[in-house]
Amino acid sequence: MAAVAGFPSLSQLLSWPTEHLTEAADHWEALGGRSYEVANQVWQGALSIDWQGDTAEALRTATHADMLATSSVADQLHEAAKVARGGASDLHTARSRVQYAVEDAHTAGFNVNQDLSVTDRSSGGTATQRAARRAQAETLAGDIRQRATRLVGLDQQIAGKVTAAVAGIRATFPEKPSSGTSPKANHIRAVDHHTFKQDPPPPPPMSREQAAAGLKDVNRRIWEHNHIDKPIIDSLPPHDPRRSDFHVETDLLNAERQQYLDVLPPQNPPAGVIGPGGIKLPGAAPGVISNMPADTGQGWIYPIPPSQPGIDPRVMSIRVMEPTNLYPNGYVVYMNEIGQTVNPLTGRTVSGFSDQFAHIPLP
């Protein structure tokens, strides 16, 4: 049975993914709940402020409208999660039906090839028997093909349903002011209805600690973008405008990530460390780039390559810190899997800064 050009192979069909749908459902439910909770808290806070005047009333009106809009989006996200979970279940059932058909063919003494053709493992028998086996192979192949086509078609239907379920959410909260609003008309009326306050001064430069927290957050969102959003986008037609939106968001996430990296220190991890008493200790693997800054933003955390001789197996990472007055060339800290500072030789946590393995100076 000839394969249709572009049709998935047998191995692709038997490993057809469903996890991205359940992960998306979990994400949407959590996001909807968190968003509504924040919006409701902001509205309740606006109500509780002892503040009178037009501006106070405008604030309460705006926060109430935001709360209602967020509530609507949260409901939509929960409905989208139901669609995604239902789709994952339907796809799992359709994939299982393909698998059962393949197993039936194997049990009957046939091989199912990657192009979904079916061939007989036996070669003997009379001409009548061989003809009957060929007919049986065609029947089995037709059944497998039918189930595979159902799986592929169902995947496309579910992608459309999921896309429709989340449609319009991004437009609920426009990032730009409406065209009728002048960008310069951003004064705030004071309570006495006579004086006006100008925009506040620009925020101070980002600190290293803020950059570290920001990088961790954007790395999480980039993971969700690549592992939750991308499979859905990949299922859309080639010229669907949402594909362009996805690439725009990719560029925005990468630009945000870069602004944090510009604040954080450069990465120059040592390949080896000389510890107390001249003992040789491992550093970071050559060429490795870390995505995990120290909480203070003053250094980077790198994984320790496995099976290092003389190192306790509980030692999982090394934190390389910037120079300080006390450590003019910087220092390193060895850590276990939960981030505790440990003696790299024993794996035991250090008792304090007096421990010679607490901060190991770099030469």
How would you describe this structure to a colleague?
With 363 residues, the protein is an alpha+beta fold. It has helices at 10-14, 19-48, 54-107, 127-166, 169-172, 208-234, 241-263; strands spanning 110-112, 118-120, 188-189, 196-197, 272-274, 280-282, 292-293, 299-303, 317-321, 331-335, 360-361. It has 3 domains: 1-173, Substrate Binding Domain Of Dnak, Chain:A, Domain 2, CATH 1.20.1270; 203-264; 266-363, no CATH class. Helix content is 50%, strand content 10%. Strands 7-8-9-10-11 form a 5-stranded antiparallel sheet. Strands 1-2 form a two-stranded antiparallel sheet. It has a two-stranded antiparallel sheet with strand order 3-4. A hairpin with a 5-residue loop joins strand 5 (272-274) and strand 6.
Q: What is the beta-strand fraction? A: 5-15%
**Secondary structure tally: strands:** 11
With strands numbered from the N-terminus, the spatial order across the biggest sheet is 7-8-9-10-11
Largest sheet composition: 5 strands, antiparallel
Total domain units: 3
Structural class given helices, strands, pairing?
alpha+beta
Helical percentage: 40-55%
Shape field: flat
- CATH architecture classification name of the largest domain: Up-down Bundle
Supply Rg: 30 Å
Which CATH C-level class of the largest domain is it? Mainly Alpha
Topology as H/E string?
Answer: HHHEEHHEEHHEEEEEEE
- List low-confidence stretches: 1-5, 175-197
* Mean of all residue-level pLDDT scores: 82
Figure out the total of helices: 7
CATH topology heading of the largest domain? Substrate Binding Domain Of Dnak, Chain:A, Domain 2
CA(first)-CA(last) distance: 69 Å
